[in-house]
Amino acid sequence: MGEVIREMESDPSQMIRLQVGTDTVCENCPNNKNGRCSSRDKVIGYDREVLETCEITEGEELSYEQFKHLVKEKIIDAGIRRKICGDCSWDNICRGKDRQTSFL
Fold this sequence. Notes:
This protein is mainly α. The protein has one domain.
């Protein structure tokens, strides 16, 4: 996850496609078992909640910078991140424990 974030941060204008379910971000996750997430239902819930809250549709393409701005405005600044995905195993990255890989 940290590596993916660092790559996106190196070029925030790069386009990303948002999807629900296992994707590039999941490649090295220990819960990814041959392309199928062992925590699939939980992750799908996170994905859908983020998309709905940010008013984005699945499959939509936007720049990483635009996505990051939407998440910050609609989720982080609104104080609802922990409600949406506070029990995620990557929570420490989004909380900013590791500032090198902090999402926001």
